[in-house]
Fold:
Amino acid sequence: MKKLKDEKELVKKAITEGMKYGEERGVVEFEPTDSANAKIEYIYRLLVHDKVIQPLAQDQISQLTMKHKLAIWASKLK
Structure:
């Protein structure tokens, strides 16, 4: 897995856009007390469920790989 340029910023953007996506769909309401890791996992699973992104292989799922996958997704947003 090759690290993206500005991956930290892209992960932040992915969390922001993913939260907006989930709330607009009406499937989730994020609380200020939710951890970043919980948000990342929920957003990843929601985007996979909606077939917005390709799922990772079951044995490759971790916080690091989910962050990377969301960063790639965020890099393709306008």
